[in-house]
Structure formats: structure tokens, C-alpha cells
Amino acid sequence: MKLFYSPNACSLAPHIVLRELGFPFELIKVDLHQHLTELGTDFYQLNKKGQVPLLQCDDGSLLTEGAVISQFLVDQSSRKDLLAEINTAERYEILSWMNFIASEIHKAYSPFFNESYSAQCKIVYRTTLNKHYTWVDQQLNGQNYLTGSNFTIADIYLFVVTRWADFIGLDLAHFIHLTSFMQRISERQTVQDAISAEAA
């Protein structure tokens, strides 16, 4: 498989999932400003959305959207801890978190990486992010991970987007449960390996 990524983007999430699963894969860096891969390929020819991540499967088929790619990858494995089996309440709890992170937290960061948004608009989104993180911090009270004691793809996704707080100067230190969560995830070898590989 080939994972098309951009450093520090949301593509880090399926990258970590691939390492957790131990699947063989090739990383291909994408310059999102020029829309070129490191191989010189026009990225729009591969993904008309022009966004990462993009997963090219062994049969040549392409899959987009990080949250879906993460689900797909786990479903190709025998791991049931990262995402529970279909038709179980545990699976849909994890997927509910994936949807919340994608639609509420991930998207709330978007204005900070787009110069067309005004400073006033960004203040609104800072308030929104703080509101969401207040709720997330409450959910993490008394448990290591979002759904309890199991580390899942939802934890990976939350970790990846929450790293962006540093890039925009959003102080989350007062969320003690979230801070502990971020430290816990950052200590995983697969996470460290993925971050190091993307920084190379």
C-alpha cells in the first residue's frame, strides 16, 4: 500500500494506524501548495480533492478521507482493540467519536490555516475549540482513552488534530485529563516512529 501524506497534516492518523497494524507500506510526501508528490506526479491526477491522506491499495484502488482510511485498515487486520467488530455497541461508540472529531474538532482548526479568515472569525473558532475540549476533558476523567481502557483509532485521530493547538497558540494546559491523554499517546513507539518518519 501507498500512503500519500503531508507532514503534520491529518494524514498522520492513518500513518500511525498502519504502524500499529504492522502493515508494509510506502510513504509518499505531497506538497499541497504545488499539488505535486515527491515523485513529481500531479497530485490532482490521483485525488481530485487535492487533499491528503490518500491510500492506494495493493490492487491500485484509491481511498480518501482519513477517518474512513483508518477504519478500512483495521478491518483488513485481525486487531479488534483498535476498532471493535461490526454490529457491536463498542464499534459504534468509536465511530461516534471519529465523526465528532472530524466534524467538530478537525474542522474548527481549518480557519487558522486559511489566510482568508479574519481575526474576529478565528476568535469565534478558538471559543468553539475550547468548548469542545472542555467536553472531551470531562469524558477523559477517570479513563486513559476516549472509550475507556482500550486504545482505538479515535484516540489516534484526536491526538493528531489536537497537536495543532501548538501551531495556532491555543493553550490547552488547563485541561488536565486531555494533557495526560496527549502525553500517554505521544509515548507510544508507533506514534514516535510516524512523527519521526514524516519529519525526515
Strand content: 5-15%
Side by side, the strands of the main sheet go 3-2-1-4-5
Average pLDDT number: 97
What structural class should be given to the helix and strand makeup?
alpha+beta
**What characterizes the major β-sheet?**
5 strands, mixed
Oligomeric state of the chains in view: single chain
Give the total of beta strands: 5
Q: Helix segment count?
A: 9
User: What general form does the structure show?
Assistant: globular
Helix content: 40-55%
Query: What distance lies between the first and last C-alpha atoms, to the nearest angstrom?
Result: 20 Å
Ranges with pLDDT <50 over ≥5 residues?
A: none
The ordered H/E elements are: EHEEHEEHHHHHHH
Please compute the radius of gyration using only Cα atoms.
17 Å
Model description:
The relative contact order is 0.14. The chain is α+β, with helices and mostly antiparallel strands. β4 and β5 form a beta hairpin. The mean pLDDT is 97. It is built from 9 helices and 5 strands; from the N terminus they run βαββαββααααααα. It has helices at 12-21, 43-46, 66-75, 89-109, 119-139, 153-162, 164-168, 176-186, 189-199; strands at residues 2-5, 26-31, 36-37, 54-56, 62-64.
Map the helices and strands.
Layout: E1 2-5, H1 12-21, E2 26-31, E3 36-37, H2 43-46, E4 54-56, E5 62-64, H3 66-75, H4 89-109, H5 119-139, H6 153-162, H7 164-168, H8 176-186, H9 189-199
Helix pairs in contact: 1-3, 1-6, 1-9, 4-5, 4-6, 6-8
